[in-house]
Write a structure and sequence with these properties.
Structural class: alpha/beta
Shape: globular
Bound molecules: iron/sulfur cluster
Strand order of the largest sheet: 6-5-18-17-16-7
Length: 696
């Protein structure tokens, strides 16, 4: 029987015979593809895209198409490990689950007896699954009363910008981009990081749509668009305000839509009138005529009654003014009434459209009146090094890391490493591999991969719920995150029934009857009932029900109620010592720090690269392929220079995120990024970073 002819089923994992199991891609990517795993005699032999799922369209990206290589990787951690060498030395010995969990529970009890807030969980989107992400883990930590984690590292500035403008992480349905006549791809290298959206954009292009890319890097996506505005990092709000200025100046405005469905128009108008194309051109570093042409294209969508759609991604909000930038862009569709059409409007994230019952999964009631402090994951470098104080509370004495690799991905990694290297810090890491973070663990607990456990997923790029069924039995002694926290809870003496709930029950609880679980079991996915044009007649999930150009809530917090351009903290031209602005977009074959250790993908990626414009390279006598040193006062990163027009003059692109130990001289791009935070959402400013570059 050929594997491709296997029919999907719901087999128990590990049995003999051949079958195909439905699943979901767990990675931090908007596409949330539907997977089919072909299994032969208990072995996963192929992972491919489910052709029945419209958004996946039978195709996976190169990373996940190699998923069996990752799950069966020779370096998978298959047994609990206990540190025997110095922190960071990577020396461990095998121990039993019982010994590991008993000791961990004892250590946590001892710390908690004094102050549970000295324990910090650290997790993010290593899996996007609602069950293996924050369900049993959150229950465990709520019951224990540990510090809460502010999960800001990727998207919180943009989220806040959307919430303050549209009322939530909501937007147009991705499939209707295929019908748009103008698509603005803003801060997104879709070919690399939103492949299935790109298919819809291509469909639109074939039907005559114009594609415009806005990105400081000349990305693979920019190559394929009709226009590219290669703006300076952190200048998106200025560009959006200048577009507004042109819309107003030329009366390309849907006055009815504005009057009926928006709030704060007169104030926004006054703000936008301060931003003509010439002013924005100076800030953005692109010709005024190019901005005017972009505004004209956008305005003509109204005149010609053709749909205009904006696809944003999170790159633009990784700067000081990231929240404001998203707010400014999110105002644009309402000005031309783009939301009236199902192929018009914008999409940054659709995740707010899912009726997830977080309380049922995470059980905040287990806090039982406790109000622990919150620690921001983006400042973990500083916070691990802080002593106890009345403002901070107790020193962090224990760290439980799951679904994350902070030593590689958190900003200013020199400090993060210093914190993780504290001999007095008790660190437990749930992992698949010996990551940079796992090297600093006292215990490494082997976690299952997506092929080995149950989970249920929302998406931030489409509006379907997906179910992941286990295709194979857990490898070695690996356990799902949920099971690890169940067993830890038992050792802590927690008797509440919620600590014995099964993963299947958790999958069902996630949407509490609002999504047909039988449909999920049968098909692997279930589309939400979302209107085709959700804001055609307003109905935004803000408190006013309108698109809020002016946010009274922000003003009440002492902030600007209107979107504005906030210059970067580290503004290009402001430092003689560090005259280059660095952004660190993802390398094409990795997903954040996942997949860096998959050899076939690393071979495709080659080596850690810094893209430099030929002018900047020549000024420093740097040739293509030279090893260079990228530095500022926070640290020094070594990698290979790629002299390329993908970088604009004055801006260098440090492609990330390599594992430090697999890069050159044990460093990665986060050596030089800073721990400062965005204007809204307390997010990191990875792309707001001045550096100097020299031959190594
Ligand atoms: S990483 Fe994205 S494109 Fe690749 S399989 Fe997963 S969801 Fe699909």
């Amino acid at each position: 029987m050929s594997t491709s002819s296997l029919s999907p089923s719901t087999h128990a994992p590990g049995g003999l015979g051949t079958h195909t199991v439905r699943g979901a891609c767990p990675h931090d990517c908007p596409d949330t593809c539907a997977l089919l795993t072909d299994v032969q005699d208990g072995i996963a032999i192929k992972v491919h895209g489910n052709p029945a799922h419209a958004h996946t369209h039978g195709t996976l990206c190169a990373k996940v198409a190699k998923y069996t290589e990752r799950s069966y990787h020779a370096e998978r951690i298959l047994h609990p490990l206990k540190r025997v060498g110095a922190k960071g030395s990577g020396q461990f010995e095998r121990v039993s689950w019982d010994a590991a969990l008993t000791d961990i529970a004892q250590r946590l009890k001892t710390i908690a007896a004094h102050d549970p807030q000295a324990i910090l969980p650290y997790s993010y989107a290593g899996t996007m699954g609602l069950v293996q992400g924050e369900s049993m883990a959150a229950r465990f930590f709520h019951k224990l009363g540990v510090s809460l984690l502010d999960r800001t590292i990727c998207a919180s500035a943009g989220t806040e910008g959307l919430v303050q403008t549209l009322g939530g992480k909501v937007g147009m349905k991705v499939e209707f981009f295929a019908e748009a006549k103008l698509i603005i791809i803003w801060g997104s290298n879709s070919i690399t990081s939103n492949l299935h959206f790109w298919r819809y954009a291509q469909e639109a292009k074939r039907a005559g749509a114009k594609l415009i890319c806005i990105d400081p890097r000349k990305t693979e996506t920019a190559d394929k668009c009709h226009e590219h505005l290669q703006i300076l990092p952190g200048t998106d709000a200025a560009l959006a305000l200048a577009i507004m200025h042109e819309l107003i100046a030329n009366n390309w405005l849907d006055h009815d839509y504005i009057a009926l469905y928006t709030q704060g128009w007169e104030q926004l108008k006054a703000r936008a009138m301060l931003w003509n194309c010439e002013r924005a051109a100076q800030v953005c570093g692109v010709p005024a005529a190019q901005i005017a042409a972009l505004a004209r294209d956008y305005g003509m969508s109204l005149v010609n009654q053709t749909p205009a759609a904006i696809r944003l991604n999170y790159g633009m909000q990784r700067v000081r003014g990231g929240g404001n930038a998203v707010r400014a862009v999110a105002c644009l569709p309402a000005l031309i009434g783009a939301w009236r059409h199902r192929a018009g409007g914008m999409l940054l994230s659709s995740s707010g459209m899912f009726p997830v019952n977080k309380s049922a999964l995470q059980r905040p009631d287990l806090l039982d009146g406790k109000t622990p402090r919150t620690i921001n994951m983006s400042t973990i470098g500083d916070d691990l090094l802080r002593s106890a104080s009345p403002e901070f509370g107790p020193q962090v004495q224990a760290l439980i890391v799951y679904n994350s690799n902070p030593v590689a991905v958190a900003p200013q990694s020199g400090k993060v490493v210093q914190g993780f290297a504290r001999e007095d810090l008790f660190a437990v890491v749930l992992e698949h591999f010996h990551t940079d973070t796992a090297d600093y663990a006292d215990y490494i607990l082997p976690a299952t991969t997506q092929l080995e456990h149950w989970d249920v997923h929302l998406s931030y790029g489409h509006t379907d719920v997906l179910l992941n069924q286990p295709a194979i039995a857990p490898m070695g002694e690996a356990k799902p995150n949920t099971q690890i926290f169940r067993e830890l809870a038992a050792r802590m003496g927690y008797a509440e029934p919620c600590f014995t709930e099964s993963d299947e029950a958790l999958c069902k609880a996630a949407f509490q009857g609002k999504v047909d679980f039988d449909q999920l079991l049968r098909d692997g996915f279930a589309p939400l009932a979302v209107p085709d044009a959700p804001f055609a007649q307003g109905g935004f999930p803000t408190s006013s029900g309108k698109c809020e150009f002016y946010s009274a809530r922000l003003a009440a917090q002492g902030m600007d109620g209107l979107p504005d351009h906030l210059p970067n903290y580290e503004l290009l031209g402001s430092s003689a010592a560090y005259p280059l602005a660095m952004i660190s977009p993802p390398a094409r074959n990795f997903l954040n720090s996942s997949f860096v250790n998959v050899k076939s993908l690393r071979d495709m990626e080659g080596e850690p690269l810094l893209e430099m414009h030929p002018q900047d390279a020549a000024a420093r006598s740097i040739a293509d392929g030279d090893v260079v040193k990228i530095f500022n006062e926070r640290g020094t990163y070594h990698c290979t220079a790629r002299i390329s027009q993908r970088a604009r003059p004055g801006v260098v692109n440090g492609l990330g995120v390599w594992w430090r130990k697999l890069g050159l001289r044990g460093t990665n791009v986060n050596e030089v990024t800073s721990q400062r935070l965005t204007d809204m959402g307390r997010g990191p400013v990875f792309y707001d970073c001045l550096v100097q570059v020299s031959p190594a």
